[in-house]
UniProtKB/TrEMBL annotation:
Alphabetical list of Pfam families matching this protein: Rubrerythrin
Record-linked Gene3D superfamilies: 1.20.1260.10
Domain of life: Bacteria
Protein's recorded name: Ferritin
Organism: Fervidobacterium thailandense
Domain Rubrerythrin diiron-binding: 5-144
Phylogenetic classification of the source organism: Bacteria, Thermotogati, Thermotogota, Thermotogae, Thermotogales
Any one Gene Ontology molecular-function term assigned to this protein's record: metal ion binding
Amino acid sequence: MTGKDLLSIAVRIESAGFSYYSKLAGKTTGSLKSLFEELAQQEREHMKRFEELMRKYEADENFATWQNEEVLGYAEQYAKAFIFPELEKEEQEVPETIVAALRRAIEVEKDSIIYYNEIKSVVPDSKAVEEILREEKEHLRKLSEKLLSEDISMFSEGSMI
């Protein structure tokens, strides 16, 4: 796995996030709909920024073929064990309950944060990855707040979307 491969995974993560939040926005109303629309738009922007990084360093042979067994091995195994299974779930239908949908979103945001923390040491422009990381942490905060909010607390675990 190369530095370019790591960014390809990041693009896939953000693309799946955009799709998931768009689906949720289509099934919800009110403040939940607004939150999911906002998150979908931000995931699309993150995807574009990772694609720009890939294009920027495409000609850099060191980056395209860069190998650090410790970082790459860890990132690759983490992606296979935690991120890809979640992406496959996201590509299917969204959960049927609000609480389950929020919990899945929180898990994916946490996994993204862990993954991006690892790859920022590989990317020559780590500031771009750090900015996305800050935004992902903000997503996690917003989703966690929504899960704990009074809006959601009136819904039982089985409340349908």
